Amino acid sequence: MGRAAELGVLDEALSPTGARPGAETASPSALIWGPGGVGKTWLALHWTHRDAESFPDGLLHLDLRGHDPVTPPVTAEEAVLDLLLALGADPRTIPSAPEAQAALYRDMMAGRRMLVLIDDAPSTRHVRALLPGTPTSAVLITSRHELDVPAAARVPLGGLAEQEASRLLVRAIGTTRPHAVRDLLRRCAGLPLALGLAAARIATHPHLPLETPPTEPPPAPLSEPLAEQDAALRAAFEASWLGLGEDARRLLLALAPAPVPDVGLAAVASLAALPAARTSTLLRLLEAAHLVIQHRPGRYRMHDLVRLHTLRHAGPASTTGALRRLVDHYMYTAHHGAITLAPRARPITMSRPAPGVHPALPATGQDALDWFDTERDCLLTLLRWTADQDWNEDAWRIAWSMDEMLRRRGHLHDRVRVWESAVFAAERLGAADVQCLAYRRLAHAHEEAGEHAAALPARRRALALAAHLRDRREQAQTHRTSAFPSRAGVEAAHPHSDVPPARLDTAPARSDA
What we know:
Elements (H helix, E strand, L loop, with lengths): L3 H11 L14 E5 L6 H11 L8 E5 L12 H11 L11 H12 L5 E5 L4 H7 L7 E6 L8 E5 L5 H12 L4 H11 L3 H13 L19 H19 L3 H10 L7 E2 H8 L3 H13 L4 E4 L2 E3 L2 H8 L4 H26 L23 H24 L3 H18 L2 H18 L2 H17 L3 H17 L3 H12 L3 H7 L20
Parallel strand pairs: 1-4, 1-5, 2-3, 3-4
Antiparallel strand pairs: 6-8, 7-8
InterPro entries: P-loop_NTPase, TPR-like_helical_dom_sf
Protein name: NB-ARC domain-containing protein
């Protein structure tokens, strides 16, 4: 794609000998900033892979999702925890306090020669919390804003120069259509994302016209260049949209509102209510059209601007149906994983999944843990989303289904967050039995994380609810879990006691969504 000048700035700023004078105790850093779709992530990844040998201890890549229209940004605290896990910290020994976690991160980075890539940073605060504070490692940041990052080299990114954009298009569509190259250069305003969409479309559908008027006026721009780029991207997207078949559009519309960082093939098939083989074919088509990114083997996501433009075509009914199927896919797969791992535990009763959902059903406990390791971020994000959307029955059921996997993998802090979300959902649901379960599990999660003071109010609330329900077994279980630090021993002795009694057989069958 070119960008020779920008790559040169990164070489000077981030090479082992490129640390700036007076920054002996800080990490060399660079900030790539510019509007959406201009190629910031591509440039960062290109430089990273080209200069990987300069960082023999590896790469830490964080996508903070600072401008995703659906999925909330990763918080600074969540990002630090993810970095600690990536560095090999035992989740059972990670301290609870954010300040202590940040100090542990800096300690673990000391002396290492690594590159930390912070992608799509929403704010300076996020970046400052993730700086390793060691001169042996470097930090590369991308953002749509010119953040105030200490001692960082600035790499402002705009549209590609005409010569670079022309080379990109010629590589994609050849030299036999010079008029097409000239027209696309003019229409795409040098925006790499628009150029990629347009080039992919003309390479696969050469019979379609180039001109595609925007379906609606652009939002009020901040400046004239941004208005031109917005119009160029919208026109390129609309042209790609018109070239899609019905199933491909259906798949894109299903992916766009999905409130998860990325998805695998099985989840995409449930989202679109299509067979897996057909889904795989369509994903290859959308990837070739630059509408979907396979950012690592078997994991798919959309550029946030492509997602935004796709959502303009989505109707409320189809969006709700796709989201219902996504939640059911994860909830039923996690539930099956939980009972596979703990077959003696008494499972909660689940209503039927929505039509078109094909949950992945782990055959063994190890399969369940492997699936959980891959889908952990998606499960956590989806749990928060269901609680925020008032899908409260789903929220507490996802929490219950995740709990065994969280415990076995030692994700103590995640477990606290999960049961905090479940308590929130249970309170809004207004069901005393579910509240009692959620508060008891939250108390135990705090205990296992070493947060004994935080466990007290949750335990008192669980006991009060158990007394209100006149449920002596629940009262005994709450006392018992506070007395035993290891829940495994409790459940081995009382495998059927950890389910809200009123919820065992009363879940209604779900109507088609």
